[in-house]
Specification:
The complex is a heterodimer of chains A (about 180) and B (about 170). With about 180 residues, chain A is of the alpha+beta class. Helix content of chain A is about 20%, strand content about 40%. Chain A has one helix and ten strands, in the order αββββββββββ. A five-stranded antiparallel beta sheet of chain A has the order 1-3-9-5-7, with no helix packed on it. The longest helix of chain A has about 35 residues, at about 1-35. Chain A is rod-shaped, with a radius of gyration of 40 Å. Chain A starts with a helix and ends with a strand. The relative contact order of chain A is 0.20. With about 170 residues, chain B is of the alpha+beta class. Chain B has two helices and ten strands, in the order αββαββββββββ. Chain B has a five-stranded antiparallel beta sheet, with no helix packed on it. Chain B is rod-shaped and about 130 Å long. Mean pLDDT of chain B is about 75; it is low at about 20-25 and about 60-65. Classes of the chains: A alpha+beta (about 180), B alpha+beta (about 170). The interface of A and B includes residues 86, 173 and 179 of A. Strand 2 of chain A pairs parallel with strand 1 of chain B.
């Protein structure tokens, strides 16, 4: 009787172990199946960078007013302004340039020069823009490399001859163009 | 075969058109920024003399004569004006009655109407060079002193003032 009880207990223990092993096997199978059941999807992303040209100025220079000169000299004392800057960004190439022109040419005897500093390109130095209009813009910075050039100083110099007479306050629009 | 050729032709045409459009777009790309510049030239009149102190010392033998030119000295007057129809006037402060100061213009350089000689006997203002108009110029100014009264005051100062005014 006692022997029967012990045999039954052993069988129960074996069954329990078997069940545990079976359960583990089923779970492992399920996990593996789940892993293998993961779906993949692909997307095509189209990337493009268009040509970008951007130029901006920091504002307008102060009034350029000639007030003095030297006795016996026709050329009056010139005045200048270096209070404004320009910034550019371009990704086109290394041959980009900045040109400048006025909305209308100055009368003979008055000269407006401008000088644009540059670290990405070659500054043309001080350039006379008195007669540069939209059809005859002049290069002020050339060979600008790709990238950005920020806060570069613009210097205007205004000169006049006594023989040209006085000039009432006049506004001129200077257009800076970033182009290839 | 014809269909293939047709498709190829269509694609080639599209490629050419796209290429042309792309090139045109690249050529026309630019960015611009404007600045407003305010310009002004005020009226400017400047006049200077090359020598500010002229010594006119009379030799002793002239002091004994009743009247005659004693001595002369020369300076150069230089001007710039961007105004129209201006003139340079001259006046002598502290003019002495014991002598007459003559001023004469020499070596005029500039397009003006001039009064070639004048006398400074009192403090009145005289037009000297007229018709200055948007120009720079110069001239020599010769001072001659005629003693009126050899026994008068031995030394005195003339202060000659040049002024640019409107005509």
């Amino acid at each position: 009787m006692k022997q029967n009880k012990q045999t039954s207990s052993n069988q129960e223990s074996v069954m329990k172990k078997s069940f545990a092993v079976l359960a583990t096997a089923v779970l492992s199978t399920m996990i593996v199946e789940t892993t293998f059941a993961q779906a993949t999807a692909t997307q095509n992303v189209t990337l493009a960078v268009n040509t970008v040209y951007k130029i901006a100025t920091s504002g307008n220079p102060g009034p350029l007013t000639i007030t003095t000169g030297t006795a016996g000299v026709d050329a009056l004392t010139s005045v200048n302004d270096a209070s404004t800057t320009y910034s550019i960004t371009q990704n086109f190439g290394n041959t980009v340039k900045v040109t400048a022109h006025l909305d209308a040419a100055l009368v003979s005897g008055y000269i407006l020069d401008m000088n644009l500093a540059s670290t990405k390109g070659t500054s043309a130095g001080t350039i006379d823009i008195s007669n540069a209009t939209s059809g005859s813009a002049v290069d002020v910075v050339t060979n600008i490399a790709r990238g950005a050039d920020a806060g570069q100083i613009i210097t205007y110099t205004f000169s006049a001859n006594a023989s040209a007479g006085t000039l009432a306050s006049t506004t001129k629009v200077v257009t800076l163009t970033l182009t290839n | 075969m014809k269909q293939i050729i047709s498709i190829l032709a269509r694609h080639t045409a599209s490629f050419i058109i796209l290429s042309i459009l792309n090139s045109a777009t690249l050529l026309s790309q630019y960015s611009a920024s404007n600045q407003v510049v305010t310009l002004e030239v005020l009226e400017l009149n400047k006049v200077i003399v090359s020598k500010q102190l002229l010594a006119l010392e009379s030799p002793l033998y002239y002091q004994s004569s009743s009247e005659g030119p004693v001595v002369s000295a020369q300076t150069r007057l230089v001007w710039t004006s961007n105004g129209e129809w201006r003139k340079i006037s001259v006046a002598s402060k502290q003019a002495s009655r014991s002598c007459i100061v003559h001023i004469s213009l020499q070596e005029m350089n500039g397009d003006t109407n001039t009064r070639h000689q004048l006398e400074l006997t009192d403090a009145s203002t005289h037009d000297f060079i007229q018709g200055l108009s948007k120009s720079a110029g110069s001239c020599g100014v010769r001072f001659s002193v005629i003693m009126r009264d050899p026994d008068g005051e031995p030394a005195h100062f003339h202060s000659v003032v040049y002024t640019v005014t409107s005509s």
